[in-house]
Give the backbone structure.
Amino acid sequence: MVSSFSIGLLVVLFGAAAFATATATATAKDVSIRCIEREREALLSFKQGLVDEYGHLSSWTINQDCCKWRGIKCSNQTGHVIMLNLQVTSWINDFEPLRGKISPSLLELQHLQYLDLSNNDFGGIQIPKFLSSLRELRHLNLSSTNFGGSLPYKLGNLTSLIYLDLSYNDMKATTLTWLTQLTSLRYLDLSYIDLTHATDWVQSVSINPSLKYMLLHDCGLPSICPPHISFSNSSISFVFLDLSNNKLNASIYQWLLESSSSLVHLDLSDNMLEGLLPTEFGSMSSLNYLDISFNHLEEGFPKFNEGRCSLKSLFIMHDNLNVELSKLMQNLSECFSLESLNLKWNQLTGSFADITSFPSLRELDVSHNSLNGSFPKGFEKFSVITNLNIGWNQITGTMLDLKAFPLLESLDLGHNQFSGTLNNIKHLPRLKYLDVSSNYFNGTLFAADMSNLTRLRYLDLSMNLFVLKFSTDWVPPFQLDAIQLRSCCKSIYAFPDWLLTQTNYSILDISSLGISGSLPQRFWNLSPRLYYLNVSNNGIRGNMPNLSIQFDSFPPFIDLSENDFDGPIPLLPSSVFGLVLSGNRFSGEISMLCEICGRNLTFIDLSNNMLSGRIPDCWTKCYNLEVLNLGNNHLSGHVPNSFGSLVNIEELYLGNNKLFGELPPSLKNCTRLICLDVGGNSLTGEIPTWIGENLPDLILLSLQSNAFYGGIPSHLCNLSSLQILDLSINRISGTIPKCFKNLTKMIQVEYSKTKLSDRSSLTWSYSGEYLISVSLVWKGSDRFFKNTLGPLTVMDLSGNELTGEIPKEIAVLKRLTALNLSRNYLTGGIFKEIGQMKQLESLDLSRNMLLGELPLALSQLNYLSVLDLSNNKLSGKIPESTQLQSFNASAYMGNPELCGPPLPRKCPGDEFVNDNKNNNTREEMDEQVNIWFHVSICLGFISGFWITCGTLLLKQSWRNAYFTFLINAKDNIYVTFAVTAARLGRKFHR
C-alpha cells in the first residue's frame, strides 16, 4: 500500500533525481564542457579535509575531469558545479561514512544548487556557517551527519531553498524565526533537533505558504502558548505533517484544523493528547493517513461526517482507549476506503465486532485488548484481508474455515481461548506469519496441511494441544525464520526430524515437548542467523558440543535448562547474551565463564547442577551483567572480589554451595542489586553495614545457614524495599532492632506484584518469560518461589543467639505473611499489638524463653495457618477462639504453666465448672427420658385399644367369635374353680 505521504515525498525526491539526471545527461552530451579549474581545486581541498576510509572519493583524481567525479554534476551550459552528492546509503554501506571536516573551499562553488552530505560522520562539529553563503542552493540534506551544537540561524539566507533536511543530528535551536525567510521552501525535516525552547515554532512555520511537507519528529516541541493565539491569518496548508514524539497537548488542535484543508498525512503519535479528539476531525475530507497512537485518548475517536471520510490508514495504538469496539467501528462507518486499522494495546471491550462494513480493509490489528465473544457472522465473506492480528484478547469459539481468506499473509490468533482445529490452513498460499500460540487448539496436523505454505517464515504453535504427524522423511516447502513449538502438542518423545531441514532460522524454541534421548548430531549444525535457542524442559541427555564457533550473527540467548545434560560445560561463543543451563547434571569447573565475560553478557543461570571448584575471579569485563545464578552447586572458595565490577548486577544467587570467608567489601559497588542470596554456605564475619548503606533497592536478602556473627546492624533498617529478610541459622547475637519499623515495604498492606527482576532486560526470554527459583522456608518447609513474590513478605531470624524482648515496633509490619523468631534466647512476653499483623499466615516463636500469658489479640489473626509457640515459659489459659483451638496441641507443648484446649492440661477451676455442666446435662437427659417414657405408654395404650376394639366393632363375625370365646373361657374357669374347691373341701373334712 502506497500512502499519500509516500506519493508526495516521491514527488519531491523525484524532482531532485530528475534534476540530477538531466544535468548528468547534458554534461555527457556536451563533451566540450569541462570542469572549471578553481572549482576543481576547491573540491580537491574539500577532499583533503575528509577522512575517506572506504574509498568513496577514489575517482577524485587530478587527471580526471571533476565533472566526472563520483557525486559531482556540472551545468551543461556553464560548466559550473551544481550538484555535490556524497550521501552514504546506510542500508548498502552500513558503517562506512566519510569523516573529518568541511573545508571553506566550498565557497568557490557559488553556483551549487544541490548539496547532500547525509549519513556521514563529522564528529559532532557545528554546521559551518559559511554554508549560508551558497545562495543558489535549492536542496540541502545534512541529515544523520553527526553535527552538533546550535543550529545556525544564518541558514535563513538560503532563500532559494526548496528542500531542507537537518534531521537526526544532536543540535538544538531556541527559535525558528529564520524559517520565515525561506519563502520557497516546500520540504522541511528537523526531526530529532532539540526544539524544547523554540516556543515560536508554530508562528515561524505558519507564514510560508509554500511549505507542504514538514517533519518535526522527536523535537521536544512545546505546546502552543498561549493556547488561544489566533492563526486566522495563516496561509499555510500542509499536505504532510509529522509532529510525533513531542510534548503537544490539546492546544495544537486549533492550528491543525486551520492548516488542514489539504492535509493528507498527519502523525500526532506519542504526545500528550487526552480525552476525545475534536469533532472537526470528522470533517477532514482529504486526510488519508492518521496516527494518534501513544497518547491518552481514552474516549475514542469522533464520528466522521457522512461522505467526508477518505481515511486509508488509521493508527490508534497504546492510547488507553476504554470504549466498546462496536462504538468505535460505528464512528468509522463512513470510512469505506479504510485499508489499514491498528487499535492494539488499548482497553477495548465488547465482542469482536463485524468489520465487513469496510470493504477495502486489508490490515486489522486489535491485539492486546479485552475483547471477547467469537468471530461475527459474515466474517467469512471478508476475503480481501491480508493481515489479521487479534492476539492477546479473550476471544473464544472455533476458528473460521481459513479457506475463506486466500489472501492472508499474516495471521495472529495467539493468547486467546480458541478451541477446535485449524481448518484448511493449506489454502493460505501467501501466508508468511502464523501465530496461534496459547490457545486450546487441538486436532492433528499432517504434512499435507503445510504443503502449500511455501512463503511461511514465522511459525508459532506454542501452548496448544496439537498432535503433529509428520513423517521422518518429510521436507517442508518452507524455510522458517522463527520456529516456536513450546508445549505445542502432546509429548512427541522423538526429536522432530523435519527441523533438520531448516537452515536459516533465527529463533528456535522446542521446549516442553517431552523429547527424550540424545539430540541428533546434525542438530548442532545450527543456523548462522540463530540468536535464540530454547530446548528446555525436556528429557534430553548427553554432552553438549563445542558451540564457540556457532552464533555468528547476533549475541545469542541459549536456554538448555531442565534436561539431563551432563559432563563439563563446553566452550561457548564469546558474544553470548544470556546463558541458562540450570537443572541439569553438568559437572566440573566454570572457568569457561571467563571466555564469555564481555559487554554482551547480561544473564547467567547455572543453578541446580553439580558444578565444583572455585568461582573464577574474572568479572571486570562483565559490566553489563544483570543476573547471575550459581546456586545449588558444589562451588567452593571465596566470593570473588571482582564481583564489585558488576555495577549493573540486579540479582546475585550464590546459595547452597560451599563458599567460605567474608563477603567482599567490593560488593557495595553493586548498588543496583535487588536480590542477594548467599544462604546455605559457610560464610563468616559480621553482617556488613554496607548492605544497608549501599544497596537501597534490595527486595530479597538471604544470609541464612552460614556462620555470621555479631549483632544485626541498624543500617538494614534503611532497606525500605525489603520484602524478604532471612538471617536464620547463624550465630547472630544482640537484640532485634526496633528500627525494623522503617522497613516500608513490610508495612504497606496494599501491594503490587513484585517480580524478582522488574528492571532486568533479561526477565523475559524470547518466548516471553524467564523464571528464577528462590528457596525460602515457608510454613515450616522449604519452598521455591518463581519469578513473582506477590504478597509474600517474610522475616526469618530463627536459629541464632538473639536476646532481649521482641520489640513491639514489629507490630507495624502489617504486610508480614511469615515471622519466624524461633530457637533464640528471647525473653519477655508476646506483645499485645500482634493483633495488628493481620496478614500473618505463619508465626513461629518456639524454643525461646518467652514469659506471660498469650495476648487475646492472637485470636484476631484470621489468616494464621501455622503457629508454633512451643518450648517457652508461657503461662495462663490459651484464649478461646476458633482459630487458636484449631491448632494441634504440639503448637503449645513445652510450656508447663500453659493450659486450656487444645492442651490436655485443664486450667484451675475448669474441673468444678465441668462437673456442674455434666450434672446439669444428666438431669436434663433424665427429665427428657421420663417425659418420653410416659408419652410412649399413652401412645401404646391408645394404639392397642383401638386396634383391638375398633376391629371388634367393625367386623360382626369377629365380634361374635370374640364374645363366644370369652363366655366359654368364663365357663371353663368357673367349672375348674368349682371342682377344685369341692376337692379341697372334702380333703379338709376328713
Q: What stands out?
A: The chain has ten helices and 58 strands. The chain has a mean pLDDT of 87.
